[in-house]
């Protein structure tokens, strides 16, 4: 019995000795993940009751509050006791089997929360690793520590975490001696940060926008791998961090929150709702703080898939929207090379949301005539103008100029500028944005302009005068504006008001056609010419009044309305008459240049009438672009008169170029069919009712581009007209009344 008891005691001592050896391995250390420093302080054996107490410190290095911290438990076991700054869940499976401390606010920006929990020694012995996890806002960090061969911190020959033992260094803290350096450095400056020179290695990190992303302006200039590092200060607040190794205590980490300069209020203005492909403009406030222009640097950020058209580094950002929502962000900071008196920084974010309904929209055409080279300063005037701008004035144009370009004058689709103290041998950028009148569909171009140092000296400005008539007729004959006594060595740039179509432009003249909307007729219109020689510019302006000129013989009808619209790949025309006398028909004529018209269809007139009569015609063969229409009203005796000319900005589709039929609806039993090409041989025409029955069919030999068809015996209703020509069939719906 005595021998058995001694054997049992010996076995117990061996177990305790093994437990002590296991629990006394090097259990301290710090690991980093996201915005957390996980400091595993050690596992201490409590020999009096056979338990182990595990201790952690979690330092939050970002600006978000620590919401919870979780520490792994032995499988199937719970903590016997625990201490921490909050209550806890004992044995939860979220995020892994752990004890979870749920915190509130207060632990952020470098503050450390301390935790400890006690488990049975036998349960602890089963663990080979120990995981720790923490969360602040949406940021989650997780690390794992190797427990193989751990020592206790309660004694022994080596230096424990509580400083016990003989001959070890002071390992009671996981942090090096405090980091030294400015906590509020000025953006752009080079400053120094340091720790004690008593470690075997040093690894420095500068603030980043987010974990895993590159620093924004922060840069290590020199000193990496030493105890002192020189850093160029960036724009964004964050944390300076150094990881060091101690010969006896292992890895330690020192951090310091840094906030560049004095905080200033920054905001972003601009639309927040978008459709993919939209051109969006955002403007920053704060870049002219205290009236000091150009004293700050700016960095913009846009969502993934978005494209910056122009404006990075300036107060105005122009972007093409992508398909996904996100944020447009701005960081702004003073630049010591621009203004040494300022030391400030700020940031702003604007949330972007996808519009609930986004229909495909055609982009307006946008080609811009612009100078490639300008002088760094002087009195020369340069023009940026949209080529073939919308003659109806429905497209809105915006010009975004650099600060060095001073606006002299502007009009619809153009701007004139002078250059003020630009840097020679640099490149400036002008961005032009075009937006359809319904705000659906936009385009933008960014134009590089090279700046050069032009010679200076005596300069004789050009003399310029503009020869124009005082009054011109709307939708009348073309009118030429010319330079009086043009000079050799002088170039002339004409600025034409909205509503005028440029038919021809020469070196010293421009020929235009007035095609103003009804509300534009009457007010004075300004024509401008800019004369430029090799050193300077001069401007001449003249005003012109546009009037509605009465024709020699009035129309035998009173036309009260004539409009057109592009819809579904065709141009739909509509007009009304208040009275008619001997009106046989309206012939619809089309032009692509406003001068040369061809007949594209006709609509039967109402003869004599004193009531309001509405007419319509659909042109399915018009090509894309600006199309002009007029009506040729023909009497029974073949006398005729023309209506005013209207213009339509037309977008054709694949159906454009198909056959057209007129009139539609058919009111007098006669139908004309116009083909997009001359028929080579026979054409087969079929009229099919909505039940699929062929009610009329005929074959036309030697068919041309236009054919007639008599439908006097066809009952009123909806039909399908099918024409087969040159091996291709085309079908169109018609109405017979």
TrEMBL record:
Positions with biased composition (Gly residues): 152-170
UniProt key word Transmembrane helix: no
Keyword Transport appears in the UniProt entry: no
Signal peptide: 1-25
Keywords on record: Signal
Span of domain Secretion system C-terminal sorting: 661-736
Location of the PKD-like domain: 176-255, 266-331, 469-541
Stored Pfam families: PKD_6, Por_Secre_tail
Region called Disordered, residue ranges: 151-186
Name the UniProt record assigns to this protein: T9SS type A sorting domain-containing protein
Species: Rufibacter glacialis
